[in-house]
Write a structure and sequence with these properties.
Layout: H1 2-19, E1 27-28, E2 35-39, H2 42-45, H3 48-57, E3 72-76, H4 83-86, E4 90-96, E5 101-106, E6 110-111, E7 114-120, H5 123-132, H6 134-153, H7 164-169, E8 171-172, E9 180-184, E10 188-195, E11 198-208, H8 212-215, H9 220-231, E12 240-243, E13 250-256, E14 259-271, E15 276-286, E16 291-300, H10 307-317, E17 321-322
Helix pairs in contact: 3-5, 6-10
Length: about 325
């Protein structure tokens, strides 16, 4: 009897296992960060639909000294969208169909990958869908690029506990080891990554919350200017970093590490010198400890494009976790 029971259980186990579909192993997605592949007929790409797409994905990135588009773009006709292109990280597919549809697909041919399919009954319907979903379209591809960048950068990063300022503030931040220590005194951290055209920089500090006015984000510029004067000197004696006076920074309400925060995109300059560049600042409200946690990235890279440098800094800053 026991033999029959064992045999029956073995058969049932085999049948249950055979019902499971084998997990598909996807290739690693390809393509540079901030690059978008558009799959669309040549006639549509050269016409009004192409103009509508270029207007959206070609809009300038905020906070850069010179205009730079959201994405670099390649276009391929649907009949040529073969295996060479299917592993692309970011794909926008546009076509005429029986219904109007905006569909986001995840990890179809590779991983991580996002494919957005826009289908319309005619070109007018397609143009309407593109306009309606323009913010979502950009955000989906940007978020996937951020994830991919973080995955790459996190392979070899500083241990937070080995950085005095991160330890004392009770926070974690995944900073690649290619960023070299400039200052870490327990209350202010500065790391720099040398690049051929200059440097990429990360700074971390905290500021006490003193009033309700602070919580509205009204004093962020003056706060960062006081930190620049104290900690970030320029070349000539007495010079230091400030927020560029002739350029009002863009300030947005966001959420970071589960808390309300302000995202600030603007330009910095050295008071008393001719150095300048873009910065990205996240000022996080930590009401539990009556303080702001500030993480900021800034780039000095004269005469070259800065979009991708700032995108890498954004990916790093968004790994912030408050543990205290």
């Amino acid at each position: 009897m026991k033999k029959y029971l064992v045999l029956l259980l073995s058969i049932l186990l085999f049948l249950s296992c055979s019902d499971k579909k084998p997990e598909l192993i996807l290739a690693e997605s390809t393509g540079k960060i901030n690059h978008l592949l558009v799959v669309i007929k040549d006639t549509q790409w050269q016409g009004e639909i192409g103009d509508e797409i270029r207007k959206i994905i070609g809009s300038p990135v905020l906070g850069l000294p010179q205009p730079e588009t959201q994405f670099n773009v390649s276009q391929v006709a649907p009949e040529y969208f073969g295996s060479m292109f299917k592993t692309s990280r970011s794909v926008l597919s546009v076509s005429i169909g029986n219904e109007d549809k905006f569909l986001i697909q995840k990890d179809v041919y590779s991983k991580p990958q996002r494919i957005i399919q826009i289908t319309g009954k005619d070109n007018i319907a397609i143009a309407h869908l593109i306009e309606k979903h323009q913010r979502e379209l950009i955000q989906v591809f940007k978020d996937n690029d951020l994830y991919s960048t973080q995955k790459t950068l996190n392979k070899e990063s500083w241990e937070s506990k080995k950085l005095k300022t991160l330890n004392s503030l009770g926070i974690q931040l995944n900073i690649p080891k290619k960023y070299r220590l400039v200052d870490d005194n327990g209350s202010f951290l500065w790391l720099r990554n040398p690049i051929p055209s200059g440097s990429m920089n990360i700074i971390v500090y905290s500021v006490p919350i003193l009033s309700e006015n602070d919580l509205k984000g009204n004093n962020i510029v003056s706060m960062r200017d006081s930190i620049g004067k104290k900690h970030i000197p320029g070349g000539p004696e007495g010079s230091y970093m400030i927020t560029e006076a002739a350029y009002s920074p863009h300030i947005f309400d966001v959420t970071l590490t589960g808390r309300k925060a302000f995202e600030v995109r603007g330009k910095w300059e050295i008071k008393g010198d001719f150095m300048a560049g873009p910065f990205l600042n996240y000022t996080v409200i930590d009401e539990k400890n009556d303080r702001f946690i500030v993480v900021e990235g800034f780039t000095y890279a004269p005469a070259v494009d800065k979009r991708d440098y700032m995108f890498e800094l954004e990916a790093i800053l968004k790994t912030l976790k408050i543990t205290k």
